[in-house]
Amino acid sequence: MKIGELSKTTGCSIQTIRYYEKEGLLSTPERTEGNYRLYGERALKELEFIKHCRSLDIPLTDVKRLIELKNKPEESCASVNKLIAQQLALVNNRMRELKALKAELQQMASSCTTENTVEACGIIKSLDS
Amino acid sequence: MKIGELSKTTGCSIQTIRYYEKEGLLSTPERTEGNYRLYGERALKELEFIKHCRSLDIPLTDVKRLIELKNKPEESCASVNKLIAQQLALVNNRMRELKALKAELQQMASSCTTENTVEACGIIKSLDS
DNA sequence: CTTGACTCTATAGTCACTATAGACTTTATA
DNA sequence: TATAAAGTCTATAGTGACTATAGAGTCAAG
């Protein structure tokens, strides 16, 4: 299949697919006589793997490392484990941040009644303090 | 005070301060004879306001709008209210995403015992599916 | 045979910074 | 007083993970 079809079946934009190729995350595809990229089942799987990793917010550098590890099936997966644990720690941190953030925003939202002027606005006041 | 001192008292890096100025978020400071920026109480307050907004993940374009609104104290603060509500909605969305993310990462982490090889690794398997 | 859809490469833009180079100014030390 | 060190200046490039655009080439249908 050509890049347009791969894009549709995976939901990745065409530019993103080309970008992943450039970054060495997708293996170099064959080309037609007219220089169009040609993909098969393998590319589809590679792309789905990347998509899945990205949906977990795993950065592309780490995705690349995971792909390299996948290609060394006999090695220990301790580093895979570590990578996921780090990712989990990041997510936990971010969640904690967002909770605090949410609390403050809610507090702010409740301090403003729409009839106010900017001058009297509780939101502006709390941002100022 | 000069930019270094402002940087230390606010915790904003020097480059960030200059960046905010360039983007029109900080008012243009006076200069010494040697062309050094000179700041006073006002700049300090402006910068604290921006910092507070940023700590709430409010994008700089919106911070700019808030600053403009602050300077029109007689207008209605409905738009301030709306902006904060949108920000809250964003945060809520992101929290929902992160919850799902965390669940999957935890699931993955628990599917890997460190003694495994990459080949048998539960994490790689679940990323593949 | 031409129109339109698709693809190609190369480049610039996004956001909010961070980092660097190379020059200038000011302060501290010898 | 000379000089070294610290601070500041502007301008530019880099970050991550894309997205958008320009301008050219390819291919299938009418």
TrEMBL record, chains A, B:
Keyword Coiled coil part of the UniProt annotation: yes
Pfam families: MerR_1
Keyword check for Cell inner membrane: no
Gene Ontology process terms (BP): positive regulation of DNA-templated transcription
HTH merR-type domain ranges (all copies): 1-69
Coiled-coil regions listed: 88-115
Keyword list, A-Z: Coiled coil, DNA-binding
MF term (GO), any: metal ion binding
Name by which UniProt lists this protein: Cd(II)/Pb(II)-responsive transcriptional regulator
